[in-house]
Design brief:
The chain has 188 residues and is α/β, with parallel strands linked by helices. It is built from eight helices and five strands; from the N terminus they run ββαβααββααααα. Strands 3-2-1-4-5 form a five-stranded mixed sheet. The protein is globular, with a radius of gyration of 17 Å.
């Protein structure tokens, strides 16, 4: 049976896309240290992401844009990114295990598992790929928009980011449907 783990990264930020990853692990090439990406240091996440890309039977990372987030809402955009990740796999899974409460619309067996990124190695691997891929994208966006300090907060609504949003206004990478951005735009 081919089991795929799926997770997302970036539902809470006020800037940047939301990412999702789908991973089918290879039982013949185990990866030690898989865990929820939020519990790993950035350096450990990067090392594990490299191992996942080399040893997994299949993996794919996808995203949903800021425009899709604002048009659909963050939950639906996250599910869209998850669906894109699964559909991008080189192998078709028999079962898809998704971290959280909601499942993307997919054919076949799909199960949502609360705390799945802590319970299932394939979901942990997906969590790591989604997080490292989104972080890399936020660093690329930082090069274009250095005045928002995206390299430090990765688009999350930290005190620093909200202050910079107030100072410089919203850019095209800010999620206009999110309250801090919407409120800043309303004030002009």
């Amino acid at each position: 049976m081919i089991v795929c783990g799926v997770d997302e990264a970036g539902r809470g930020p006020i800037a940047g896309p939301v990412f999702a990853a789908a991973v089918v692990l290879d039982p013949g090439q185990p990866i030690d240290g898989l865990a929820d990406s939020k519990r790993l240091s950035p350096a450990r996440r990067e090392r594990l992401a490299g191992a996942i890309r080399v040893r997994a039977r299949a993996w794919h990372v996808a995203s949903a844009s800021v425009e899709e987030i604002d048009r659909l809402n963050i939950l639906q955009a996250s599910l869209l990114a998850m669906r894109r990740a699964v559909q991008g796999l080189a192998v078709a899974p028999d079962e898809v295990l998704v971290d959280g409460l909601h499942c993307p619309a997919l054919s076949g067996r799909v199960r949502a598992i609360v705390d799945g990124d802590r319970l299932h190695p394939a979901i942990s691997a997906a969590s790591i790929l989604a997080k490292t891929s989104r972080d890399a994208e936020m660093l690329r966006l930082h090069a274009r928009y250095p005045h928002y300090a995206l390299d430090r907060h990765k688009g999350y609504p930290t005190r620093e980011h909200v202050a910079l949003l107030e100072r410089f206004g919203a850019s095209e990478i800010h999620r206009r449907s999110f309250a801090p951005v919407r409120q800043r735009i309303a004030r002009g």
